[in-house]
Amino acid sequence: MATGPKEATNVIGLEEICTERQEPPKGQKTFTVEEAVETIGFGRFHIALFLIMGSTGVAEAMEIMLIAVVSPLIRCEWHLQDWQVALVTTMVFFGYMIFSIVLGLLADRYGRWKILLLSFLWGAYFSLLTSFSPSYIWFVFLRAMVGGGVSGHAQGLIIKTEFLPTKYRGYMLPLSQVFWLAGSLLIIGLASVVNPTIGWRWLIRIASIPGIILILVFKFIPESARYNVSTGNNEAALATLQRIARMNRAVMPEGVLREPANERRGRFKDLMHPKYLRTTLQIWIIWLGIAFAYYGVILASAELLERDLVCGSPAAAGEEAGDDSEESRSPCHCRLFGPSAYQTMIISTVGEIALNPLNILGINFLGRRLSLCITMACTALFFLLLNICTSSAGMTGFLFMLRALVSANFNTIYIYTAEVYPTTMRALGMGTSGSLCRIGAMVAPFISQVLMSASFIGALCLFASVCVVCAISAFTLPIETKGRALQVCM
Questions:
Q1: What was the pLDDT predicted at 402?
Q2: Over the stretch 385-399, which tens digit does the pLDDT of each residue have?
Q3: Is the CB of residue 76 less than 8 Å from the CB of residue 328?
Q4: I need a labelling partner for 85 at 20 to 30 A (CA). Which of 26, 30, 284, 300 fits?
Q5: Membrane-spanning residues where (predicted)?
Q6: What is the distance between the alpha carbons of residues 108 and 113, in angstroms, rounded to a whole number?
Q7: Does 185 share its domain with 291?
Q8: What are phi and psi of 55, to 5 degrees?
Q9: Is the same domain home to 179 and 215?
Q10: Does residue 316 fall inside a structural domain?
Q11: How many Cα atoms occupy the beta-carbon half-sphere of 216 within 13 Å?
């Protein structure tokens, strides 16, 4: 396998050796997918790829954030206790955790594109069924199935990673956060209009529309060329690369595409190989902690707004918002969001992109490890600052910064995980990491929606402590992937 000069200087002891390689005839020029991607460069194909695959974040954000905006309504409709509301979110991530490993394994064996399409079909189907839930039990089960479908959306990021030239990955992948932000803002905006008028069931139906639309445009994106060569399908990989070159109005490298096939694809034990064991374990810890903090912030925001907690004291029902007073006196004692609550949620959600420029600079100049360490440490600090008695405006400011920081954490770990593993196990590496991180997401609702009611300070200190552990783990990661070419095989 040919090795580019950048890879040679950044290999960091992880040279990928493929024993199946056959030497080309003497004098014949050859090139690898990595060299072709770098030669073709960035162009119109990558813009289309960014828009289509990035839009998977819109659908995913709407499905994940949906629970935060409908929880007060289902609490009221089915007379739920705190733990029952928390269980809904937990089961969504339980479905995500189980299917994430399975779909990651299947993606390494059968292709990223097929699994991505399957996950969207699955998610859209069960999301629509959720809107017809006759009971709380059915609602929980169907949302768990939606979580299983959403877990496959990570294949969109893998496809983007495998098509992007090395120097653009650190810039384009963090920009994908714009789509997650758009999805989050869209579901909050829709909830503010739909929930008080035609109800949460119609909100769920409307939220499934972006996913259905994306299914129709996936045909414009080809299967990953890196995946094709890893399975020995060099002809398909070459056709894809030639198509990209035409769209970008660029030229292909001279010679023949020659890259060895590797039959050892998508095996869980490869993640435990001595070469990757420490990296894998530390990545899992970081993913778990980031998800715990991220969804903890989202759900804590919803709880703070629903209960109107300022300085740790619940305000009397209907004390501030006159238009909410009638709802607050409902027989099931639920407190529904008013206009001011939705406005605060929108402001804090916008924070998810506030640090994107600094995050991009950090990722590309400080490196993935140090950048993640700094943002995780700052996340811990702002969790502790929430303990300060402040006004509603101050609370909104703290939540704004927390959303910005936890979003930056996710940006960095997504990029690092996609870069650190070779093509033969990249989807499985992302899948298992995504699965493990859902453990943190499953625990977060019980901290944000149950423990926080009993001990506000205790819940926030727990979040901060987990972030400190993740910061240390990020700083001590054994591999830096900044500027490092994507590896093909073990």
A1: 87
A2: 887 777 777 777 888
A3: no
A4: 284
A5: 47-71, 83-106, 113-130, 136-159, 171-194, 200-221, 281-300, 345-363, 454-477
A6: 11
A7: no
A8: -70, -15
A9: yes
A10: no
A11: 5
- Nearest 10 degrees: Cα torsion 455, 456, 458, 460: 160
Write down which residue in 262, 293, 320 finishes a domain.
262
Residue 31 forms beta bridges with which residues?
257
**Tokens 């955790």 belong to residue:** 97
Mean pLDDT, rounded, for 249-260:
81
Residue 473 near residue 461 (C-beta atoms within 8 A)? no
Q: Could you say which DSSP state residue 182 is in? A: H
Q: Is the pLDDT of residue 24 over 70?
A: no
Confidence tier at 488 by pLDDT (50, 70, 90): low
Cα 237 → chain centroid: 27
Residue 1 has pLDDT above 80, yes or no: no
> CA distances (Å), 41 to each of 271, 342, 382, in order?
31, 43, 40
Amino acid letter at 53?
M
Query: Which of 428, 367, 391, 434 lies closest to 96 in space, CA to CA?
Result: 434
Tell me if 421 sits within 8 A of 283, measured CB to CB.
no
How long a stretch of residues is the chain? Answer: 490
Provide the CB-side half-sphere exposure for 195 (13 A, CA).
23
- Asked if 291 and 226 sit in the same domain, the reply is no
Number of domains comprising the chain: 2
Q: Which of 262, 292, 327 is the last residue of a domain?
A: 262
Specify whether the CB–CB gap between 290 and 406 falls below 8 A. Answer: yes
pTM for the structure as a whole: 0.70
Q: 245 and 285: one domain? A: no
Q: Is residue 223 part of a domain?
A: yes
Write the CA distances from 98 to 66, 95, 152, integer angstroms: 20, 5, 11
- CATH code of the domain in which 222 resides: 1.20.1250.20
Which residues 6+ apart lie within 8 Å of 364 measured at CB?
170, 171, 482
Whether 183 maps to a domain, the answer reads yes
Range of the structural domain that residue 82 is part of: 29-262
Residue 392 lies in a domain: yes
